[in-house]
Amino acid sequence: MEQDFCPRPSVRDCGRLVVRMTASEKPGQVDDKDGLAALDALEREASEFHKDAEIDRILKAFRLDAYAVLDLQPGVPDSQIKIQYRKLSLLIHPDKTSNASAPTAFDRLKKAQTELMDPRHRTHLDECISDARMLLIRERKLTVDSPEVKQPDKEFIEAWRRKTVEVLVDAEHRRRKQLKAQLQEEGREQRKQDEEVAERKRRREHEVKWEESREDRIGSWRDFKKGEGEGKQKKKKKMKVLG
Length: 243
Hints:
Blueprint: H1 11-25, H2 32-60, H3 66-70, H4 78-92, H5 102-117, H6 119-139, H7 147-150, H8 154-212, H9 214-238
Helix pairs in contact: 1-2, 2-5, 4-5, 6-8
């Protein structure tokens, strides 16, 4: 691809050019102070435009693809992830821009960096990206040695990115389904445990009440036996003597 070796003028250079042109056309009309003020205004406007554009890019990036959120290629080293995160976080930090979407973009940026620094999550993401590539190769009846695969053009890369989104969405659906089943199983297990705890509590309460009523039961039994003995004695007194 051809490169444009002609350097593009910076915002500061453009501002200086405007100041010089204005001063040359209308001598005495513009002094250095006014020129610097105009230059600073241009730079602030350009800076805000850059911040807004980056915030918009982050919010439009597929959030399950941490590489896309951080605008990185898969396989980059951890050091590059840290550098990219620091650069972008400083650019769009909510304290440094009036954009109302900055907090949301900043949170997504932080989440993406955390995910890529987590070996397990990053391995899962890399596997999904690799699976998407193989699926695309099979769909197009290609091989890993095909020129389109070895030297992918823009169209192939875009198709790969779309396929990656499909694979990630499918993986997320499976994860949520498994999580739901796990939560349901845990719920059943928890209910079973709660029922066992309630049954043990009921038995303990029954044993306590039974023990507390022990004296009453003993007293009732004594009264019963006492009454039974008195009844026998009365019957003996009423018996007539034969003879």
